[in-house]
Write a structure and sequence with these properties.
alpha/beta, Rossmann fold, 6-stranded mixed beta sheet, about 25% helix, elongated
Length: about 525
């Protein structure tokens, strides 16, 4: 090529290979003596392999959905039942519960900016997917580190766009993790409504959703107890390493949500929705229930602790609607021998019930849990003593742990009659035996002291609500007296009697001919749904 000759190179590449340092051919046009001709010159080059990201790597399908690749950049989700209404299997739900809801977000240095941003994204997703736009005025938002900053007060916003915009503008603070201080502040200041919302009911449950990834650096357990005592329900969301602390904050392990990854956090939206609505659980309080309390009044409990038991029963009972149609309560105390303080159908008002609980006597002496359970089986959870057919029956036993050796068989008899047991016991070495009495670990609640009873109230209340909603066998316990046979029929029952007559075979037939007695069935209206 002569000096001064002009060289032009095309932009088009005529080769491609996965090998490095492979020569590529570039067409070159050489101008010489007024004419153009094509020649090929070899240039060394290096090829790089590029791996395109898989759109399914980000796990876009929620709630157990399966991500299926669609082309190079697309995907679609195969969703489980009830989640098919959204392309990413997001929960197609809406809260029907009415609560004042405050999100308290950890903005400390230990959580990090990245964690804080994940929490903001979670909040926006939750509100979009779950929360009813008509109740956005019931939502508040705060974040904290050394101090607490209220971002949204109850009643500030009614539209989703404005609320999401303010979440986006929330800035990371950094600093120490003073969760206890934040809870005290929220309890006193977080749920105040502006005067313009004076027409909105103020008796809505107050719920705090705590999002944190940091261990508290102050006395958070005492602060949480203060909050719960003031009527604040706490739901805590965090990682596995914080589980024990979060359980102590909520006072109820069922109100703790543990996540492992960022995507797993998003998948907890449905669980959070259920937990929020379970707090506004008026449906539980209107669910028919026959509830029996059996209190250990032996010397191993002592007078002072027995008084704490009675206070706990009073506090728990005050949350139920006491009448013939909803909740009936019976109280049994026991030492060596059991004593019925009042039966299921004795009191039909809450005030009369609470006054009667105060009068329960302390008996002293040794304890026999088995005798108490047998007494309840034979003489309390029976129709002739006020028990209602078709209504769930639960026996709550509060015991020091002494005198439980004879309780296994009576407990089995109660469960065989479709009567549920909940055993609340002070820490005991006989845990294997207590598990046999309770029937399962879910029916056994351990307390470190009787003072701890009041901190377990929400947890036990939730268990009772769960039991009240369980299906029942209308013929258990057998409502028919005098060896009558209970026969279910169309959500009711009738008693087949021999030698007796009446709805429950309660009247002896005077005539010699008893063969037709079964023709007088008891068609009893029950509470079955």
């Amino acid at each position: 090529m002569a000096m001064g000759e002009e060289v032009a190179t095309s932009n088009k590449v005529y080769s491609g290979s996965n090998r490095a340092s492979l020569a590529k051919f570039w067409p070159t046009r050489l101008k010489s003596k007024g004419c153009w001709r094509n020649i090929f010159i070899k240039y060394p080059s290096t090829c790089y392999r590029t791996i395109c990201s898989d759109p399914c790597d980000s796990h876009p399908c929620q709630n157990g959905g399966t991500c299926i690749l669609k082309g190079l950049e697309g995907y679609h989700c195969v969703c489980p039942v009830k989640f098919g209404g959204d392309s990413n299997c997001a929960p197609n739900i809406n809260t029907e519960c009415s609560v004042d809801l405050l999100f308290l977000v950890d903005s400390s240095s230990s959580t990090t900016l990245e964690g804080f941003l994940h929490y903001k994204a979670f909040l926006k997703k939750f509100l979009h997917v779950v929360w009813n736009t008509e109740t956005l005025q019931n939502v508040a938002l705060a974040h904290y580190s050394n101090d607490v900053k209220m971002i949204v007060q109850i009643g500030d916003y009614r539209d989703m766009f404005s609320l999401v915009k303010i979440i986006d503008s929330m800035e990371f603070i950094g600093g120490n993790t003073l969760t206890g201080k934040a809870l005290r502040f929220i309890t006193q200041q977080g749920f105040k409504r502006p005067p313009v919302f004076s027409d909105v009911p103020e008796d809505l449950p107050h719920v705090v959703v705590l999002l944190t990834d940091s261990k508290a650096e102050d006395s958070v357990v005492e602060a949480a107890k203060f909050s719960r005592k003031e009527g604040i329900s706490i739901i805590a969301i965090g990682s596995e390493v914080l589980r024990r602390e979060l359980d102590e904050i909520t006072g109820n392990p069922k109100r703790t949500i543990i996540y492992s990854t960022t995507q797993d956090l998003v998948n907890k939206i449905t669980e959070l929705q259920r937990k929020i609505c379970s707090i506004d659980n008026q449906g539980c309080l209107s669910q028919p229930l026959d509830l029996v309390f059996a209190l250990d009044s032996s010397a191993s409990t002592g007078r002072f602790n027995f008084a704490q038991m009675k206070n706990f029963v009073s506090s728990l009972s005050s949350h139920f609607g006491i009448n013939r149609d909803v909740t009936q309560v019976s109280l049994v105390v026991f030492g060596k021998r059991p004593q019925t303080v009042f039966g299921l159908d004795t009191h039909v008002t809450s005030s009369a019930l609470l006054e009667a609980i105060k009068q329960a006597p302390f008996t002293g002496g040794s304890a026999s849990v088995g005798s108490a359970l047998l007494h309840i089986h034979d003489d309390v959870t029976v129709v002739q003593k006020g028990a209602r057919p078709g209504v769930k029956k639960v026996v709550v036993v509060l015991t020091s742990g002494a005198g439980v050796e004879d309780a296994v068989v009576p407990a089995q008899q109660l469960r065989g009659n479709d009567v549920s047991l909940l055993i609340i016991v002070k820490e005991s070495v006989q845990m294997d035996l207590l598990l046999r009495i309770a029937g399962s670990s879910n029916s056994l609640v351990r307390i470190s002291s009787y003072e701890d009873l009041r901190h377990k109230k929400d947890f036990i209340m939730e268990k009772l609500c769960d039991e009240a909603k369980m299906p029942v066998n209308i013929c258990k316990p057998n409502p028919c007296m005098n060896s009558g046979i209970c026969i279910p029929k169309n959500d009711n029952y009738w008693c087949q009697c021999q030698g007796w007559e009446g709805f429950h075979c309660e009247n002896r037939i005077r005539s010699r001919d008893t063969s037709q007695s079964w023709k007088h069935p008891a068609m009893i209206h029950t509470h079955l749904n």
